[in-house]
Structure formats: C-alpha cells, structure tokens
Give the backbone structure.
Amino acid sequence: MEQTERRFVNKKPLAIIKKIEMHPSKLSLKFILILLILSNVCWSQNLILKGTVKGVNNEKLAYVNIGIKNKNIGTISDENGHFSIRIREENQSDSLSFSYVGYKQRTIKVSDVIQKSISEFVLEEKLVPLEEVTIIAKKTKEKKLGTTSYVSFVVGDVRADNNQNNNIQEFAKKLKIKKPSRLLDVNIALSNVNIDAAKFRVNFYSIKDNLPFEKIGSRSIIIEKQIINGWNSFDLKKFDLKFEKSVFIAIEYLPQEYNEQAPFNYNGQLLGRAVGRTSSLGTWDVTKGAKIAMYVTVRQ
C-alpha cells in the first residue's frame, strides 16, 4: 500500500513563474523602464534595520529573538550580537521586540528606530526568583515524558526559504509533570540530515490556553552538536533543571546563514497535535493529526 507523506508544518504555496521567451532585439525600452519602476517600488516598500544587542555591561548578546510580535516577522542576533531585519512598509507603524532569557523584554516603535537612527539596543537583566523544587532521594526512578516513537512518513519542515530574515524554527512539546522532576535529557528524531552539526536552543514556557506562553528560566541553553538520522539526545543534566508542574519544552533551531538549504526534517507520529512557529516572537501554529517525535527523560 502506498504511503502518503504527512507534513505538520505547512509550507507556503509555490509561486509558478512562466518563462517568456523573447528575442533581445524585440525587448522594448518601454518594457525595461516598467521593470525598473516596479523594482524600485518593491524595494521602497521594505526597510532593512541593522543593529547590535548588548547587555548593560556592554556585553554583546548572541541569539536574541527579535521581531514584531504575532506578525511572523523576526530574526535572531548573531554570535556578536549583530542583527539585520527586513520590515515591510505596512509594518513600519508596529513595534520591534527583543527577547532573551534572563533579561527584561524590550519593545520599541519601528518609527522611533528610523527617526532617531537607533542602532544599539541595550537589554536589562531580570531578577528571576528561585523556586525551590525538592526531590526526595529515596525510591526515585527515571521516566520518559513525550512521544517516544515515530514513523518515517510524518515529517516537519525546517524553514528552507530563509532569504528575507535569518529566522528560527521552533517546535514545542507539553510535558505533563505531576510531581517534582529533574530533567536529564531531551531527545528528538530527525531525518534527511544534510549537515554535520547544528545549533539549537532549549526553551521552557509556562502554559496558557494549552499553548506556550512566557519563557521560564534565567539563562539561555544553547547546544551545538553533530546530528544524525534517527534519535538525537541532548544532555541537560549540567543545567540542573527541576519542575514540579506541567510546562512546554521547545527545541529552537538557530540557522547560521541566510538562504540555507533545508538542513534536516523533524520526524513525528500520527495522531495528536504539533505546536510550532517559524519566526522569532511569532504566533504558535497548531497542526492536528500529527505530533513531533520528542521526549524528555526525567528522574522523579
């Protein structure tokens, strides 16, 4: 029986462009002028903002999420805190937000950035109250939370048309935690791997309306490692992560360059739902009928 591949991140429809064959000598000057005018109009409708994100001590912040909230227009800063983001004309009245674990979120109007020629954005550290989670040492056992199997024909696309903004891809999984738990590792299934190594950020979110809400934690968890087809395990023990109630865990892929080819696919399983987004500070999309193959090993 023929299997149909199911994808749980929808791609934009492909634009089909018809090729028009014309002898160069018959290409009129008028036609060329029209093309130039249209080209200038298209460029004038977009604005490219460039800048650097720093902390109050002048340290450059890497991989800061930058974007217009819920508009799916975003990017991340590079290892040196530099960023570039393309803003459409209709969004130039919106506000640009900067989000980084352990720092206060900053929001500034795009119009102010333009008029005041702002190119340096400083984030203030946020005091995060420590919530003590006690795990009784006696009779603890390891348990896997999440989806521990996958089928090859259920896949999640990693953004391949990353030519406008250096944007992220993030998939989230709800961890149903009912008693104090220490997280040992997070595991994801990948396929069609075309790169040797990849860089990911592991995020944790509180829950609202059964979706990820606000980031939890005081530091950014960046993991760079070789990846393979099949299960990939990321060790979390050194981060001493403890929770006593349900949270969302998310794997955020951090691209290293614009316009890169699809580096890999996420694998999934039938039934359930997949939660993900394709832009920094973008909207969370829910796809029903499939779920990402991701689980966490905990000690309870």
User: Anything to note?
Assistant: The longest strand covers residues 265-277.
